[in-house]
Amino acid sequence: MTNAAGDHALLVREGETTRALLTGERGDERDRVVVIPLDEDVEMRVDGDALAVWLARGSVAPAPSAIPGWASAIGFVLVLALVAFAVLGSVTFFSWLLELAT
């Protein structure tokens, strides 16, 4: 696993069955290989620090690309519209309910 330490992982499969997950971790003194067996009958002993570091770095999928500002603005406007319709619907329903009660 030369130069594999970092955000890389290798899933070992046998047919359709997943067997193990291999990843690397760069350290100050040396690099470490983290092996996580995925078989049900295997006793798993994992270095907690290495697993925590690996999980904190994210999944094995590539990092998503940057989201454009216009897409974020459209999403924000849609969320505001949803909240406005929810408030308008609540006011309409409760005013109707109060008229019905009186």
β-strand number: 3
Q: How far is the first residue's CA from the last residue's CA?
A: 76 Å
Q: Rg from C-alpha positions?
A: 25 Å
Give the overall shape.
elongated
The major pleated sheet works out as: 3 strands, antiparallel
**SSE-based structural type:** alpha+beta
Uncertain stretches: none
Instruction: Assign a percent range to the helix content.
Output: 40-55%
Can you write the helix and strand succession as a string?
A: EEEHH
Beta-strand percent range: 15-25%
**Order of strands across the main sheet:** 1-2-3
| Multimeric state | single chain
> What is the mean predicted local confidence, pLDDT?
78
Q: In DSSP terms, counting alpha (H) and pi (I) runs of 4 or more, how many helices?
A: 2
Summarize the structure.
Helix content is about 40%, strand content about 20%. With about 100 residues, the chain is an alpha+beta fold. Strands 1-2-3 form a 3-stranded antiparallel beta sheet, with helices on one face.
